[in-house]
Amino acid sequence: MSDLYARHRAVLPEWLALYYEDPLEITHGEGRHVWDADGRKYLDFFGGILTTMTAHALPEVTKAVSEQTGRIIHTSTLYLNRPMVELAERIAQLSGIPDARVFFTTSGTEANDTALLLATTYRRSNQIIAMRNSYHGRSFSSVGITGNRGWSPTSLSPLGTLYVHGGVRTRGPFAHLSDADFIAACVEDLKDLLGQGRPPAALIAEPIQGVGGFTSPPDGLYAAFRDVLREHGILWIADEVQTGWGRTGDHFWGWQAHGQSGPPDLLTFAKGIGNGMSIGGVVARAEIMNCLDANSISTFGGTQITMAAGLANLTYLLEHDLQGNARRVGGLLIERLRAVAAQLPVVREVRGRGLMIGVELVRPGTDEADPDAAAAVLEAARAGGLLIGKGGGHNTSALRIAPPLTLTVVEAEEGAAILERALRSVR
Predict the structure, then answer these.
(1) CA–CA distance, 90 with 261 (Å, rounded to integer)
(2) Using CA atoms, how far apart are residues 187 and 258, in angstroms rounded to an integer?
(3) pLDDT reported for residue 266
(4) How far apart are CA 100 and CA 118, in angstroms?
(5) Which residues lie below 8 Å from residue 165, measured CB to CB, with a gap of 6+?
């Protein structure tokens, strides 16, 4: 056990998860690579849990942060803040939500917490509809609506939560159906649920479930849900903490794969926009955002230094068409991994979109999740010089692959080759 690991265990909670049998200390990074305390170089295919969206040590972002630090770091939302207004203007325009207002937080958890506060206040209801296998953060309210037992340590909650089918296409009672019939069955499940109790405030859903193992429904499911919700006045919250900013390649926001019935009423974001700086937020129609009848501030949400980083990062992303790069390079990477998976009975499915890819592992010859195999592949990939993540509602049996959006074709091929060797090492 390293000295740092021993010190970690002595002062930090036991439930604070760490990867690897011999936990890794990352000391610095550049581009798509990071280095550990022993000087070993790794290709980073997880980006601080989808947070280093563009690149490690991106010069444009580090320059913006350095310059802002030299002026002022923080004043709070009690004062006018030019970088915050400028980033809010850009996000409101990009969101697709009409008459949008933006509130900045420090994390995705806090963003979802705020969205729940807004929705329940606006609707005068503490009932929430959530998706099975979902994850929305670690606060008391967001844990209460998380449909993933591995990340929900308590059943106590200020909210009443109703769970519907649809977030996982290839498991569950509707998995055998065609896409159209799957959507129809999930809609009937939603209608049945709405007849069971008092009208809910909102549906909250990740377009692609992140911690759940990068699972998703067929395109159009949430549009069909929205038609039903609208009849009852129920709001739709799109949790874009992991899917936003072009990561899925085909769309800038994950909800756009389900946009036939219009945009969500509220959209939450975080992670990638700050490229490692702590930024989260909520976008909502003005009438919803302005429904609170008490004062509020955010001490650290929208602070100048994080807003400077967000502006520089968003500008770089748009000017360099990183959404297009995610579509092109991600498409190649998915096909490469599917070709490998076809030869390996341990791989049940390669799924995903753009640079958000899940590889689900099972015990060969069965449909039974294999978390031990996932852990073994994680270790073998690290030994080969590749960092990936893991997740999944079925015993954490999915590998999560989400590199920075500047990933090159050469790096994608290098990472796929390392992952192939790691998968083949599992017996």
Answers:
(1) 23
(2) 14
(3) 98
(4) 14
(5) 132, 172, 173, 174, 185, 186, 189
Identify whether the C-beta of residue 120 lies closer than 8 Å to the C-beta of residue 223: no
DSSP class of 404: -
Q: What is the DSSP string of 342-361?
A: TT-TTEEEEEEETTEEEEEE
38 to each of 22, 27, 378, how far by Cα in Å?
13, 9, 19
d(CA 304, CA 74): 6
- Confidence band of 1 (pLDDT split at 50, 70, 90): low
Q: Which amino acid is at 295?
A: N
CA distance 250 to 5: 41
DSSP 263-323: --SEEEE-GGGGBTB--EEEEEEHHHHTT--S----SSTT-HHHHHHHHHHHHHHHHTTHH
pLDDT tens readout for residues 91-147: 999 999 999 999 999 999 999 999 999 999 999 999 999 999 998 888 878 777 777
Q: What is the CA radius of gyration of the chain?
A: 21
* Cβ neighbours, 10 Å, residue 290: 12
Distance separating alpha carbons of residues 142 and 128, to the nearest angstrom: 11
State the average pLDDT for the chain. Answer: 95
Percentages (nearest 5) of helix, strand, coil residues in the chain: 40, 20, 40
pTM for the full predicted model: 0.94
Q: What separation in angstroms does the CA of 335 have from each of 256, 330, 353? A: 23, 9, 11
382 in Cβ contact with 42 (< 8 Å): yes
* Sheet of 347-353, strand order: 347-353, 356-361, 398-401, 389-391
SS3 (DSSP) at 238: strand
Q: Are strands 266-269 and 356-361 parallel, antiparallel or unpaired?
A: unpaired
What does the block give as tokens for 332?
């190649």
Q: For residue 157, name the pLDDT band (cuts at 50, 70, 90).
A: confident
pLDDT of residue 173 exceeding 80, the answer is yes
Give Cα separations from 264 to 135, 169, 212, 420 (angstroms).
18, 21, 21, 39
- Quick: pLDDT tens for 266-298: 999 999 999 999 999 999 999 999 999 998 899
Which sign, positive or negative, has the C-alpha torsion 194, 196, 199, 205? negative
335 burial (CB, 10 Å; 0-12 / 13-18 / 19+) is exposed
